[in-house]
């Protein structure tokens, strides 16, 4: 997605060889107009998949997911990372291991929001090692629902998540795929291999 790539180049920073900072428009401050375009892009790609629900993870997955949900005309559910006062009914839970933080945390979704006949589009802001995506897949599987695709805003293609998910035959659509962040330079995978 050209607009997103331009935004990453102009406002993103390679913090290290593995971490991209994009808090100007995605992870802290949010650019609503860019989010609208992201929603349209996901809709165009997944429009023939009969999506009935979008599942994401709080917090940075919510903005792109809501815009995709608006375009596709489906509700958006975000898995919660912290215990909620009101989240107390037949919970679907999964563990997420964070390589960066080297710790395991839990996510939870109320069972009433994911049903067997749902065709779920999983969306997240980043795809690195795929731990968050795998936890969301786990939750969908517990509900007995179908996974129709995985939409990612920024894939760090030099980490293993995207390859592993595609090897498992998930339809992974990433709007920007980063080849490397070496020497402070942000490089995208060439369109030919995308
Ligand atoms: P890891 O595999 O690289 O260790 O990443 P991990 O799953 O532990 O992700 C930890 C958090 O960092 C996630 O957000 C994930 O989206 C984010 N993340 C991973 N790589 C990058 C990156 O290169 N740049 C940025 N900006 N974020 C990255 P989170 O903790 O769930 O936070 P949020 O959704 O509330 O923003
Ligand atoms: Na994040
Ligand atoms: Na995230």
TrEMBL record:
This is Xanthine phosphoribosyltransferase. It comes from Corticicoccus populi. Xanthine binds at residues 20, 27, 156. 5-phospho-alpha-D-ribose 1-diphosphate binds at residues 128-132. Pathway: Purine metabolism; XMP biosynthesis via salvage pathway; XMP from xanthine: step 1/1. Pfam families: Pribosyltran (PF00156). One of its GO terms (molecular function) is xanthine phosphoribosyltransferase activity. Residues 37-167 form the Phosphoribosyltransferase domain. InterPro entries: PRTase-like (IPR029057), PRTase_dom (IPR000836), Pur/Pyrimidine_PRTase (IPR050118), Xanthine_PRibTrfase (IPR010079). Its EC number is 2.4.2.22. The keyword Oxidoreductase does not apply. Converts the preformed base xanthine, a product of nucleic acid breakdown, to xanthosine 5'-monophosphate (XMP), so it can be reused for RNA or DNA synthesis. Keywords: Cytoplasm, Glycosyltransferase, Purine salvage, Transferase. Homodimer. It is found in: Cytoplasm. Belongs to the purine/pyrimidine phosphoribosyltransferase family. Xpt subfamily. The keyword Transferase applies. It catalyses: XMP + diphosphate = xanthine + 5-phospho-alpha-D-ribose 1-diphosphate.
């Amino acid at each position: 997605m050209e607009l997103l790539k331009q935004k990453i180049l102009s406002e993103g920073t390679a913090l290290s060889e593995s971490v991209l900072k994009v808090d100007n428009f995605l992870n802290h401050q949010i650019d609503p107009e860019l989010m609208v375009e992201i929603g349209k892009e996901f809709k165009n790609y997944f429009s023939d998949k009969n999506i009935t629900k979008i599942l994401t993870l709080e917090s940075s997955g919510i903005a792109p997911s809501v815009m995709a949900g608006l375009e596709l005309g489906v509700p958006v559910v975000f898995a919660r990372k912290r215990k909620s006062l009101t989240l107390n009914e037949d919970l679907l839970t999964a563990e997420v291991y964070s390589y960066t933080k080297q710790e395991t945390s839990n996510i939870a979704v109320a069972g009433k929001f994911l049903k067997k006949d749902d065709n779920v589009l999983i969306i997240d802001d980043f795809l690195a090692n795929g731990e968050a995506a795998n936890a969301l897949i786990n939750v969908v599987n517990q509900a007995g629902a179908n996974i129709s695709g995985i939409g990612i805003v920024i894939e760090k293609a030099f980490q293993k998540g995207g390859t592993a998910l595609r090897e498992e035959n998930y339809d992974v659509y990433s709007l920007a795929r980063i080849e490397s962040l070496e020497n402070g330079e942000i490089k995208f995978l060439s369109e030919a291999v995308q």
